[in-house]
Amino acid sequence: MKIWMLSTVVCLAAGARGMASREPVPPPPPVEAPEGYKWVLNQAYSDEFNGRKLDDEKWHNHYPGWKGRVPGLFVPESVQVDDGLLRIKIGLLDPPRGDDGEWWIACGAIQSKGQEAGYGYYETRMKASSLRTSSTFWLMNPRKDAEKAGKRTELDIQECIGDAQRWPDFKHQFRSNTHITFMNEEKVDGEYPVVKKGASYDIGSNVDEDFHTYGCWWVDAKTMHFYLDGEHVQTIEVSTEKDPSPFDRKMFINLVCEIYDWEVLPEKEQILDDSKNTTYYDYVRAYTLEKDDVK
């Protein structure tokens, strides 16, 4: 009898620990699903960052095939997961790297290992750094697919700079953009033709002051609706003049903090200031629409 009671207690305790360790199911996106459909979490591109390290089954801790933009080098050391947050911290490279020491700023990026993100809803909750470096959330189609399709597609959901100097609007706007590079056309001045369409919305405060949720419902090959803190604030309708289905390629997800060659470089004193040098991502969530069989 005592053995049975002890076994029961142990089993109940283990079950309680198991229930407590389960992560809560994220809420559905702030978008009503079309009639007959429901939103389903796409686990391959979702992460609550609740562990003690980056989930290397889902993410690269760098940007494969791209080192960054001089003088900002992507290094895995800039990427950390702690206290329920993904942190991308800008730092100094000591010693600088490269033949001429041209890489002296440590930047960071993560990229999804899955590369087949399609139509659906994508969202992150983010607080930008207070540096003149980017804090971003975006999607792009893989290089091999771009070469095969003859076009590169890029969907920038949020692209901001906490201490923007050259274009100060980057400090306080929800800035979204689309880029289509037509690689099957002749280059002009050494570059392939690019079609862009963007949208921006004033957040009402600087992007480094607090967390905000930035979301996008990628509806179809030409339509994207953007959501700030759960409210629809802007829409991009991509031109179909050159391509009737411009955004029909599967893509991968990027969270990147980098140097822009058109922005004033951050000062070393700022880079060393831990109250300014980190972009925080609370989560990344992706959802797809599936038929709802419930009558």
Automatic annotation (TrEMBL):
Family: Belongs to the glycosyl hydrolase 16 family.
Domain GH16: 21-292
PROSITE patterns: GH16_2
UniProt-recorded name of the protein: Family 16 glycosylhydrolase
Native source species: Pontiella agarivorans
Keyword annotations: Glycosidase, Hydrolase, Signal
Signal sequence coordinates: none
InterPro entries associated with the record: Beta-glucanase-like (IPR000757), Beta_agarase (IPR016287), ConA-like_dom_sf (IPR013320)
